[in-house]
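Subject: Sanity check before I submit

Could someone independently write out the structure tokens for this chain? I want to compare against mine line by line before I put it in a report. The sequence has 499 residues.
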Amino acid sequence: MAKYVGAVDQGTTSTRFMIFDHKGAVVGYDQKEHEQIYPKPGWVEHNPLEIWQATQDVIKGALEKLHIDIKEIAAVGVTNQRETTVVWEKATGKPVYNAIVWQDTRTDQICNELAKEGGQDKYRTKVGLPLATYFSGMKVKWILDNVPGVRERAEKGEILFGNIDTWVIWNLTGGPKGGVHVTDVTNGSRTFMMNLETLDWDPDMLKDLGIPRAMLPTIKPSSEVYGYCQNSGLDGIPVAGDLGDQQAALFGQTCYDAGEAKNTYGTGCFMLMNTGTKPIQSKNGLLTTLGYKIGKEPAVYALEGSIAITGALVQWMRDNLKMIQKSADIEELAKTVDDAGGIYFVPAFSGLFAPYWKSDARGAIVGLTRYVAAGHLARAVLEATAYQTREVLDAMNLDSGVPLKALKVDGGMVFNETLMQFQADILGVPVIRPTVAETTALGAAYAAGLAVGFWEKVDDLRVNWGKDKEWEPKMDPETRAKLYKGWKKAVTRTFDWVE
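---
Independent answer below. Compare away.
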């Protein structure tokens, strides 16, 4: 009798395998970091083979820790860092180039060329996205244009493309020996190639990007049996869920009604609002994306505000400036002062994402005086996440016409009490952390469990959601307005930095 569902959570900095019980509680997990590769300024890469090895290692590690018989696992779901692009040989499983990570900005020339006639929003009605370096289609084009011989081989069907979900599922289900080449609607909607209405690859987009259809995966629902594990210690277990990490968190947070929203605090920060079964085109710099699609049910759409650098800014303080030893130390350092000392830190390291979409912006610390000490810098780092979230929330309220009453939060940074209190203060609405903060992996597990009948229906999942802690806003409206005005001014100082 199956008691558990597993989830591979392949993130920007690490890979985890998590096992959940029927109540959605974490039974156990294993985790492993992988290398971040920076060949040039603005370029970010991962080694796909290292990621696949880490996936195998964490599956083995979690099963060994828990002494679970794999017959007790009903299904496995996959969730992934989105937009990160892998192109590999079908016959061998060997990547033709490193994975180009979502943060990478090398495709800015490709974006500029495509935007010459029609501007940044020329494809928005088709794909829901502005022309930006963020999305996979431009990264695939870069590989086809820059790695000798790959384009010709792709046209012959010898080369495959996928976001990381596709890469992991293909390897889990056999790789070169019959691996299933699929993606789901949520990951498809991040490629710049999927039509929002048809939920299939758009021929005009493929033509404009010069991408052969033969290399693209089949687009499936987020919850369906795609195939069965053939290696990695999970032989015979169905792979039955696939959601991009932010959509997985929306699903894991049980945001199943239009108007419900969540914010995930990870390497970047991502707020998604369920908008129901019709796509809403944003007029305020948000992305129109797929929320999820369960089996044969209608697809559910979402509005998304994507922020490139939040947790990554804390890592930068740790690794580049050596101001803290571990990421959690940032809170103690921030608590040595009462405020940010008049400074703002705008972390436009790879340009600005929502709601600006300026790939020529670069990071800035503004308002510096001799008074400023390390504690002020630490506080400004945390506040940057909260201010960027406020900008996205404002845009979401305008687009949806539904003012948000509370924000459900998840991800690594939600255990930082100082940040969560400031977040509630600058938003002016309560911030709520659930009992299971690992909602990304949980969302993938839910999708997989639904596909095999481990859970009967979506409503069964709501029962599992519980509140761990709530932060109420304590800041007066005048202070909130003054601080936010300063932030908006600071952001403008980062514009047009790269000539």
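---
OP: Matches mine. For the report I'm noting this point. The first strand starts at residue 4 and ends at 10.
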